[in-house]
Each structure stands twice: as C-alpha cells, then as structure tokens.
Automatic annotation (TrEMBL):
Source organism phylogeny: Archaea, Methanobacteriati, Methanobacteriota, Stenosarchaea group, Halobacteria
Name of the molecule in the record: VOC domain-containing protein
Transmembrane segments annotated in the record for this chain: none
Domain (VOC) ranges: 2-136
Superkingdom to which the source organism belongs: Archaea
Organism: Natrarchaeobaculum sulfurireducens
PROSITE patterns from the UniProt entry: VOC
Length: 276
C-alpha cells in the first residue's frame, strides 16, 4: 500500500497555504481541476507522496469533498498509487467491495501542462472515505508532483501514516483485514485521540475516542463519516524535524513518537511521526 496523497480540504486556498508556509511547509500552486470548480496547491516530498491543499475557486457542483472544503475540515480522503486502476477494481470486486470507477480526471497547471490520471473509489456510502481511492497516472508522475523546495532533502521524507477516525474500531479493522489482509494492529491510548491502533507495515492507524468523550475527534465524527482525521509526515529523526519546524513536544504513539505542528488552525490534523 503506497500512499499517493492526502487531500487537505479548506475553504480558502490562500489562507491554508499561508498557514503551511508559516510552518515552513511552503506549497506550490498546482492549478485547476478538470471540474473547473476546485483548485489546489501541492506540498511534495522526496518519495513523491504529497499533501494536496484543495479548495473551491468558484461556485459549482463537484465530487471533490465539498462538505469538507466548506467546513475547513482538513484531511478529507486519502489516495494510494497503483500500477493499474482496472486491476485494482477487479481485485476489490472479487472481495465483495462496491466500486465506483475507473474514472478519468485531469488538472491543468499554470504553465498549461495538462495532467491526466485514472481513479477509482471503493466502499459503500458509509465507508467510502474510510477506504483509500486509487490513482494511476496517464501522464508522467513527475509532472504531477515534485519535491517542494521547503521540504526537499530535509528531515521530512513523505507521508508516514494516515490516521482514520472511526466510530467502531473493531469493524474498521475487520474491513481492512478483508480488503487488504492487514496484520493485527498495535494499540495504545493517545491524548486527544483515544484508542489508536497502528498497523505494522501499512501507512495507516485507526483512532476512536473514548466513550462519552467530547473532544475534537468525537466532534469530528459527529459531523463527518469515518475517514481521515490526521496526516502524519515521516521522519527518521524527530529531533532534526523539531529543530527545523515549529513542533509541539513529542508524545508516544503505538508505533513510535509523534509531534504535532504548533498551529491553532491545524490542531491535531498535521503531525510528524518517527516510527520505532
């Protein structure tokens, strides 16, 4: 399972880009999507994974997580890179998972370069955001994402883990076991997240708030269905990352240590993970 990108939804692309820039994570404008409604900026890493800051540039209908965009929700979905979307669709259908696709998408960069790819979504309406959607490029990947100057050759190397906020932890684990044959997760209790279950060898962790909790994650799950709630960037040296970027004190995570960015706007939705 190779993460391609995490769409980070916000109503004002300039405002969220400015906040990332303040944190030392300067993104680069990526252009307008083929739906002509949404546009985006890219924070690309050395491993060619990226955070996609996405917003609406005009009014109109589209299916790129409009509710998340209009609510400044941050992580709205997550995407894995596959060799071929058709083959991935067949595999998921064989496992009894509903499939929407293959779909054709595009984006035009400011320099006029047209980027094209195939995409597919999986799952029922209830778990469509919990499962990753798949992407396969029809134009060169290097045209879609390059390492951003603000993070290239630095201590942040990519997206380490997508944290999936869920109502029912056991049901979510069973779904991923059926779809992806994941191993038994490593569990722990993490402040502000509740129970966290990180999956060895996979770039995912599940989080469910404690019963009766009124924290940020419980509030998010009241507003949005199960799906990404936080994006953890990868580092081999958390100390070096903290020297370069404004990060809070590190906390214990089931499979390592995490430090979240010092940002009232982002809260616990963006952090850095040093895996054990």
């Amino acid at each position: 399972m190779q993460i391609d990108h995490v769409p980070f939804a916000y109503s004002d692309l300039e405002a969220i880009s400015d906040e990332f820039t303040r944190l030392g994570l300067t993104p680069e404008y990526g252009g307008v999507h083929g739906n002509e409604v949404t546009h985006m900026s890219v924070l690309g890493f050395d491993d060619r994974s990226y955070v996609e800051l996405i917003a609406e540039r005009t009014e109109g209908d589209h299916d790129f997580w409009p509710a998340h965009i209009r609510a400044d929700a941050g992580p709205a979905a997550w995407c894995v890179r596959v060799p071929g979307v058709v083959e991935t669709c067949k595999r998921m259908l064989e496992r009894g998972v509903p499939v929407r696709g293959p779909l054709s998408d595009s984006r035009e960069r400011d320099d006029g370069t047209l980027l094209e790819w195939d995409r597919a979504e999986f799952g029922t309406e209830e778990d469509r955001l919990l499962l990753p959607f798949a992407i396969a490029d029809r134009t060169p990947l290097s045209a879609r994402v390059e390492p951003s100057a603000s993070v290239a050759d630095g201590p942040l190397t990519g997206i380490a883990q997508v944290v999936l906020g869920v109502h029912d932890l056991e049901a979510a684990i069973d779904l991923f076991r059926d779809c992806y044959r994941i191993p038994t997760p490593i569990r722990g209790t993490v402040p502000d997240f509740g129970t966290v279950a990180a999956v060895p060898g996979f770039p995912i962790a599940f989080a469910t708030p404690a019963s009766g909790s009124d924290g940020w994650l419980a509030g998010r799950l009241e507003t949005f269905p199960d799906g990404p709630c936080s994006c953890l960037l990868a580092t081999d040296d958390l100390g070096a990352a903290r020297e370069r970027y404004p990060l809070e004190d590190a906390i214990e995570w089931p499979d390592g240590r995490v430090a979240f960015f010092e940002s009232e706007l982002l809260g616990k939705r963006l952090g850095v993970l040093e895996q054990a």
